[in-house]
Amino acid sequence: MHLPGRSIRILIAGLFVFGLSGNAAAEADPEISVQLNKLEADGDDCRAHLVLENALGEALESFQLDMVVFDKEGVIQRRTAVELAPLREGSTSVRAFRMPDTDCDGIGRILINEIAACEGPEGAIEGCVDRLEIESLADVPLIR
Fold first, then answer.
1. Looking at residues 22-30, what average pLDDT do you find?
2. Residue 37 pLDDT greater than 50, yes or no
3. Mean pLDDT of the chain
4. For residue 4, what pLDDT band results from cuts at 50, 70 and 90?
5. Residue 61 CA from chain centroid, whole number
6. By percentage, how much of the chain surpasses pLDDT 70?
7. pLDDT interval class at 31 (50, 70, 90)
8. Angle CA(92)–CA(95)–CA(99) in degrees, nearest 5?
9. Are strands 32-42 and 132-136 parallel, antiparallel or unpaired?
10. Euclidean distance between CA atoms 24 and 79, whole angstroms
């Protein structure tokens, strides 16, 4: 197959642009990670321990998650908003929150329903939800 010189230049330029955009996509945006590290009984309550890593490139003055706790049958047990800030830029922090009158063994999964607040020193941080990475080391999945 013979391509005229102009077509070859267009093809090469397209491959070059595609290669650059592929590299840009491979480089991840800075992110914030939330790890459900463990659940522990605290009397009649359940305490969740979260490990947070802030790699957004700026401090977080407010980072509030709207979380929904489901039982093992998939029925909602509770919904709660949890404030996890302040979080310094480049830091790893541990935060705990209590779920009153909740049996840890009865929890089937925890959903991060939405990010209710994601604010730095200059105000709201756009696209925060797209830069959220989650995982669970507990026996209970953390999902979004």
1. 48
2. yes
3. 85
4. low
5. 16
6. 80
7. very high
8. 155
9. parallel
10. 37
Q: Does residue 103 have a pLDDT over 70?
A: yes
Q: How far is CA 144 from the centre of its chain?
A: 8
DSSP one-letter string for the chain: ----HHHHHHHHHHHHHHHHHHHHHHSPPP-EEEEEEEEEEETTEEEEEEEEEE-SSS-BSEEEEEEEEEETTS-EEEEEEEE---B-TT-EEEEEEEETT--GGGEEEEEEEEEEEEEETTEEPTTGGGGEEEEE-SSS-EE-
Contacts of 52 (CB under 8 A, 6+ apart): 32, 33, 34, 35, 63, 84, 87, 92, 93, 94, 95
Distance of CA 127 to the CA centre of its chain: 11
pLDDT tens-place string over residues 70-89: 999 999 999 999 999 999 99
Q: Got the DSSP string for 37-62?
A: EEEEEETTEEEEEEEEEE-SSS-BSE
Beta-carbon neighbour count of residue 95 at 10 Å?
Answer: 17
